Amino acid sequence: MVRAHAPGSDYPECADAAAPPNIVYLRSVQRRDGSGRRYALATLGVTTAATVTVASACVIPDLTATGKACPCGAELVCDPCTATCVPAGSERDNCDSDPLAAVQVTNLIADWSTPNVIRWSWQLGADDVPDQLVGFRLVVATSVAEVMSESGSARVYTNKDSPELRAYYLRHTNGLDPVISTFSDQLEPSTLYFARLVATDTAGRVSATNVAQQRTQEPAVGSLDVFDGDEVAATQPALDFSTMCATPARGCYSWQCEGDAPCYENLRLRPAAFTLGEHITEGQFATTAFLEVTLEVQGSPSDWSEIRLWLQAEAGPHRLNGVTFRGDADLPGPRVYQVPLRVLQRGGDPLAYATIESPVYETGVGLSLDARASATIHRLRFVW
Questions:
Q1: How far is CA 129 from CA 102, 124, 288, in A?
Q2: What average pLDDT does the segment 231-241 reach?
Q3: In whole angstroms, what is the distance from residue 253 CA to residue 269 CA?
Q4: Which of 31, 123, 134, 321 is geometrically suited to a Cys-Cys bond with 107, CB 3.0 to 4.6 A?
């Protein structure tokens, strides 16, 4: 809001003294009125020796109005995308994000990292139209500029890399579990990465999150193989292959779904008893220790899957749920999955270091596969 007042009006400070003769002048003075409000005095005049002609105005900007052009007063900030004043906390830092997009994504954060993997999560909009989503993509790079330009070191993860990015809800969950997390993999250890998630709708409009950052963990210093093909390392415990839902194949521990789709089974490795606490310190458990599974799925991807660890002292396994295992229908070959031991949960409670002093009973993955799809564990190991 701008008010203009003539000299001698209800703002008497707007009156200006006569200027020296024969001078054309423009004058601006900052002052306050009796109530403490700030205003600007702008005066334009032409003087001669005989007469004085003056036109003056007092301009009082309202710096508290939301939506006005920047600059902004107290409790408001300048939104760089619109150059207008908005309440603090509502300004945007992703100006290419369309607020009218059918699916809105916000608040990207890094949940955790290993030397080669970062897990990211985000929030979805309350008024989203799920069936208008074309897909998500995650852009990861070693600088913010390369994330924004999707160039240089940037890698763009799409549904080819991570099938969960193709839909608003995870498959086989009856629309109850929206896609709010994914992995970026094949990363370098001890490296700071930046990421941004982008959602595209059927009208071509995009919504984009903030740029988040996370450093990958230091390179591992030790590991213990539970299974590595048909070669048994000297430190590897003997395997007791479970016949409940899996049979050993040449060089790998595999299982094929032959029932009605989708069929869900646990692909389990039951090694001879050994104790992780004998190898992993409490400090390593709290920071760097993780379970690594090299898994190949032939056919369609496995949706709503899990990575699991069951210790003898527990009534059931600790899990990381909601994982999607990529199938070779998208990209051929195995993929390496890494998950910190400390984030595995059972009944909402995370795995504790005291628990890993109990011998390992079983470890592996749970899969939800289409008919005639198969899954193969090529390697499973604990790393720290």
A1: 5, 11, 39
A2: 43
A3: 8
A4: 123
